Amino acid sequence: MDRGCGLAHARLSILDLAGGAQPMQLEQDGLAITFNGEVFNYLELREELEREHGRRFATRSDTETILHAYAVWGERCVERMNGQWAFAIWDARRQRLFCARDRIGVRPFFWTLHEGRFLFASEVKALFACPGVTRAFDLRGLNEVLTFWCAAAPRTVWEGISELPPGCTLTIEAGPGASGRIEPKRYWQLDYTSDDSQQADASAEKLIELLVDAARLRLRADVPVGAYLSGGLDSSVIAGIVKRRTDTRLQTFSVTFEDPDYDESDYQREVVELLGTQHDTVRASNELIGGVFPELAWFMETPVVRTAPAPLYVLAGLVRKSGYKVVLTGEGSDEMLGGYDIFKEAKVRRFCAQQPDSKLRPQLLRSLYPYLKSLQAQPDAYLRAFFHARAEDLQNPFFSHLPRWKLTQQIRGMFSKETKAALAGHDPLEELRARLPREYASWHPFAQAQYLESTILLPGYILSSQGDRPAMGQSIEGRYPFLDARVMDWAAHLPPRLKMKGLDEKHVLKRAARGLVPERVLARPKQPYRAPDAASFIDPSTGKSRYPYVDELLSETSVGMTGVFDPASVTKLVDKVRSGSATGVKDNMAFVSVLSTQLVAQRFLDRFESEVTASDSAHP
Amino acid sequence: MSEISQKVSEFIRSSLLLDSNVDVAGTASFLEAGIIDSTGVLELVQFLEETWNFSVKDEEMVPANLDSLAKLEAFVQRKLGG
């Protein structure tokens, strides 16, 4: 505590277990820090700070390195850091608080202003625990969840609570003369200026070199480090690099599914056999997903449209039980190197939209989803409309994401009259358009799609509800070599033709991965990571809810009390799910959206005080 | 092999073929040999458009233009005005 500032910290000890306690102070410079995350290149920075600037260190922790880096380089210290962090440094001499978040948003940072005080934390619930802080939904945030699948920072789903956007810093002046404006300052952004001179083989070599070093830095820990293995290309590449290019003994962890549509056990086994890792699995049955969902809602702190975070929460639990605190994962590869189906789909849609009269081109749209029978029978005109593959769609800056966003927005039809009235005039796409960087229009369409995916869904959902939250809920830290600062900068300049050659996604990564992962994993069609949605809560064979909370929260009374959705519409949807006829993506997303909204409302609005008390006694 | 043939054949080998040992240049008819099916043709056309920046009409998507490496080479040359 200082006159102007108080810092508090609950630590997951990974580096310098004894010396890294926080909040940490550097008394000679009048600095104190609270820091969540890792600065992976702290040894290199420390060496430079000692050699060039004569700094003397008292601990072996990366936390102390940040303090010295700030003392020497000021606010620009973040530009030299390679890692995942959210931190705040109290600079007592200047009476200012300097806050920063990592480039891509691995670690969370929330803040609010309350009675003239700036309050910040890694979790919203910590802010709610401060007496007098308002706990209410920001309906505009929910409107974004039902568009983008997450609120887009700085907005959150909570009124008055902001999130510091990735790649930004915030400086708060203390005292009576301080300006009241709080404006995040951007220090980093993905730059998609294409380096067209790059060739496939040389790029593959460079990528592997960068990934090896990214993994090497991420193995720095005073506790053992494991890795996730999904059975897909990305996590297999990371496990392959660790096993074959470092001297680490590797323990891998996988989640398996009851439903064969989601299960990738065969591929997982193949990678394990090839690499010879110690391996452990946990099975995410539909029942287990529904069972952990209420607990997970407490950690996610936001409604979601899919259940996919739940198996990762179960998986993190297995890691914890195995005595590990840190795991490497393949997250970020699809965004940086062009792996998602949405990129492929956009390419095909563009190909169709460029010749609106072509009778042949829509065939390629059908070929994207051969298993969707209804799609095969669609007349061309419907197909083009459904996929937003008409000539006029080409002008839309969000061309790549229109099918996903427009489909998700249909769930808003279930909002209550009051919610609809409150949201009249709020258009998330218009707001986003105003925030796009100046260069956006000059980028290749493939890069535009990557930008949208990397700056909205990645930090807001993949790294949060599906990343940091389920992991930290089990006291596990995820580390992501594909999101190394050098990998991201390099990949952004990689020309689109090398990211997706024809319709071959992550082309350069596949070249780079030859010999590191089994041929069958290289050749397999990409399987998006998904989990059973409505079936996790209502057993489709009986139509009965698997847990009492499902009936309780989806009752007309409960939905009406929360007020976000229209009770009659929810009942209609629930009946459809019970009857087994809610098989489409939209119905499933709608069901999970409503249920998670109800869960979050229950835990954060209705019962928050008792939740906090229960949580305190569970984790003394 | 010309640069056009090389690029096209590399694409067919890496993106359309399951068996990478097929002699793409020596194949007289991609259709007959089962190398390219109806969606493969569209992927190929998309690749041609993306690589050489021209557009292909439905009526041009015919075996006479696309069914062998030699035909593809000639087609691309024509489209480029060569």
Can you walk me through this structure?
With 620 residues, chain A is α/β, with parallel strands linked by helices. Chain A has 4 domains: 24-186, Aminohydrolase, N-terminal nucleophile (Ntn) domain (Glutamine Phosphoribosylpyrophosphate, subunit 1, domain 1); 200-331 and 463-523, Rossmann fold; 341-450, no CATH class; 534-618, no CATH class. The radius of gyration of chain A is 24 Å and the shape is globular. The mean pLDDT of chain A is 93. By secondary structure, chain B is mainly α. Chain B contains 4 helices and no strands. The mean pLDDT of chain B is 86. Classes of the chains: A alpha/beta (620), B mainly alpha (82). The A-B interface holds A 347-348, 351, 354-355, 357-361, 363-364, 367, 497, 501-504, 507 and B 11, 14-16, 38-39, 42-44, 46-47, 49-51, 55, 57-58, 61.
Question: Sheet bearing the most strands of chain A, described?
Answer: 6 strands, antiparallel
Number of domains of chain A: 4
Tell me, what is the CATH class of the largest domain in chain A?
Answer: Alpha Beta
Major protein interface: A-B, 19 and 18 residues
Note the total helix count of chain B. Answer: 4
Largest sheet of chain B: none
CATH superfamily of the largest domain in chain A: HUPs
CATH domain fold name of chain B: Non-ribosomal Peptide Synthetase Peptidyl Carrier Protein, Chain A
- Helix and strand sequence of chain B: HHHH
Distance between the termini of chain A: 22 Å
How do the strands line up in the largest sheet of chain A? 1-2-3-4-8-9
Given as residue ranges, the uncertain stretches of chain A (5+ residues, pLDDT < 50) are none
- CATH top-level class of chain B: Mainly Alpha
**What CATH architecture of chain B do you see?**
Orthogonal Bundle
Mean pLDDT metric of chain A = 93
Category from helices, strands and their pairing of chain B? mainly alpha
